[in-house]
Amino acid sequence: MTSSRPSEQETPTPSRMWPVDYILQSSYSPLHLEGQIPKRQWREAFEDLLALETNDEMISLESRKREAEMGIRINYGILSHVIYLANRGLRNLARERKGVLDTREEAILGGDLRVVSWLNESLSMVETRMEKIIEGTKQGTQLVEAMKKLPASRLRTRGTWIASLISSGVLPGWKSRLEGGARRSEQRICMQKMTDPPVEPEETKDIVFTDEELRNRFGRAPSSNYKIPSGGIDYRYAGQRFDEVTVNEHLGRGRSSSGPTQSWPYLTFQTTTSERVLLPDGSTINKVVLTNHFLNGKEEKIEIIQDAAKVLEEVEKARLLLEGLEVVSW
């Protein structure tokens, strides 16, 4: 028994904003399917379909392995810094607790019961804060351990995964723009189609979203028992803000940059483009261009050849800088 071939009317025509609008709107989107059937690697399967359509080959397992290893390194690096800050906070709270206990002892000896009652409340508040820090650190450690089991594509948030399709070389003619927000989950990602401009004035030119909006649309990703917030690295970084961002000592190596090398200015946004480069033997490789735009008007261009792990590293550094946070070593 044979089935008839679908007619042209029955075959859906890809829209001008394909596949980004499909990812955001279709019930067959990998972001929707991973919530329905979480044990399948929907993101990677979708990437491979796009790669076959665009480049006639799937993304290599070795590339995915290196990207996953980098994602885990980033998680451990951020976690170790969070633990350092937590320990510093606990030491400060311990000194505060001792001061409250000493003052309460004096109040008890003086018979001032009203002050004793107030100090008891203060002591309870300090101890509650200490318990929350300890519990948060334990949950962070459990979270990072759980994320070791995730594939490379799930070590990104939903939003940064969509943008990473450009750096993977499967969205030719697209450009992404990562902008800061009040929180990491509110950082804006703008996807822009550089080719095939809109014909009608009312047609969509750009697609803009945040991880917070994607979480509201698709729900929390059931990645593990530890509730990874959006299926990626975005786990409410609890670091300290700095008036001047501290940069890794190796951050500027191997770069073509018009920006400063020591006192790092505030990053305002990062753009991503990619292109296929023809080699002498006739094969092609993917070149990614990340451009960091700073508040003082300077730009830093980073060119990366066929290295998804390095792209992930640079994007995560940019996300920290957009929050005004310290770039930690990983």
3D structure, described in words:
Helix 4 runs antiparallel to helix 5 and helix 4 runs parallel beside helix 8 (308-322). This protein is an alpha+beta fold and 330 residues long. The longest helix has 50 residues, at 61-110. Strand 6 and strand 7 (299-305) form a beta hairpin. Residues 1-11 and 223-263 have low confidence and may be disordered. The protein has helices spanning 20-25, 30-36, 42-55, 61-110, 113-147, 158-167, 211-218, 308-322, and strands spanning 174-179, 188-193, 206-210, 256-257, 267-278, 284-294, 299-305. A 7-stranded antiparallel β-sheet has the order 3-2-1-5-6-7-4.
Report the uncertain regions.
1-11, 223-263
Number of strands: 7
Q: How much beta, percentage-wise? A: 5-15%
Q: In percent, how helical is the residue content?
A: 40-55%
Q: Which strand order spans the largest sheet, edge to edge or round the barrel?
A: 3-2-1-5-6-7-4
Approximate shape: elongated
Major sheet details: 7 strands, antiparallel
**How confident is the prediction overall: mean pLDDT?**
83
Question: If helices are DSSP runs of H or I spanning 4 or more residues, what is the number of helices?
Answer: 8
> Over the alpha carbons, how many angstroms does the gyration radius reach?
24 Å
State the end-to-end CA separation: 58 Å
* Structural class by sheet pairing and helices: alpha+beta
User: What order do the SSEs take from the amino end to the carboxyl end, as H and E?
Assistant: HHHHHHEEEHEEEEH
